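Appendix B. Raw example, untouched.
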Amino acid sequence: MRPRNIRKHHVEDLSNEVVDTYLVAGEEVRDWISPALCLGGHDRVYKWIPKGEIWIEDHMGHRETDTIAFHELRERALMLTGMTYNQAHKIAEAEENKLRHAPLYKLESAIKRALLANWEITVRGSSKRRKRARCK
């Protein structure tokens, strides 16, 4: 339940047809929805984040925002394949830590791959699941 609208700003460069990334006022989220949000989150972990959305706190610089976005996109894609949160989080965190010390172009490339993975799993994966279900 959302007692009031949370300020959200859509980030086009971190979004595609299946996942939308928003910068949100983290303090408002913690005050009005849940104290659990810490830097970022997505719909596969937090049921109060709308389907297909990633929320990232709006108080960080560009590089940190991109790093958190990568983590959330990667974790979400892994969870879409059936991994648990703990499994996906561990992998995303390890990859995020490597990217923190990498050149910016590597972070940008990793974000593009994570966005593509979310799209491929959602679009192609859902049709594969439907085909398997019909064959049983």
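End of appendix B.
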